[in-house]
């Protein structure tokens, strides 16, 4: 028994160097060799961490997350440009009538006007012609007894006259405060009836008088009137002075 044990130990000692030589040549023992599983070596130390690998491909999108809370309102932006006007909308229904307003103060309307005609055929020269046919004299500012218009409301007035001329020439003038303002002359044509006329705008003060008068001698007094021919004189207030109350 001792001889067998000694022989076995010698055999192992002879085989071990060969296995070590083979391992030195190959770096690692061949698993097919008899010594591969006979004796394991001690575990080595862990190696150093290798370099990071390259990024992998993007994965597929995940499921949509839940809606988050509303954020804080940001600052107000600059106003934008005005857009083009839109189409006109349909017309609305009429509104209800408003309440009746308070009654205002009545405004005084200034009136002054007259329109008169001649009755006698040939008025006297160099004196006011007395037009006694009254067409309009509601304010009684014209005096038929004197033939003069008396201003009661200061302002701007319009005066006009239209005279029938017959039998002889006519020279007339419109007077204001004893001064002739305009003149009219018409030369009579034999066997004919003429017309002489004139008009003027005058500013009058309260108390001013205006009238029509034949001037010159009697051969220039052809102002005429009958049942089919009239000679007229008229005037009216256009507008009163601003300071009239």
Automatic annotation (TrEMBL):
Compartments reported by the entry: Secreted
This protein's record includes keyword Transmembrane helix: no
PROSITE patterns: C1Q
Domain of life: Eukaryota
Record's keyword terms, sorted: Collagen, Hydroxylation, Secreted, Signal
CC annotations in GO: collagen trimer; extracellular region
Stretches the record annotates as Disordered: 25-98
Signal peptide positions (record): 1-24
Identification of the protein by name: ADIPO protein
Pfam families xref list: C1q, Collagen
Comp. bias intervals (Basic and acidic residues): 54-79
Chief location bin: secreted
Domain C1q per the UniProt entry, residue ranges: 107-244
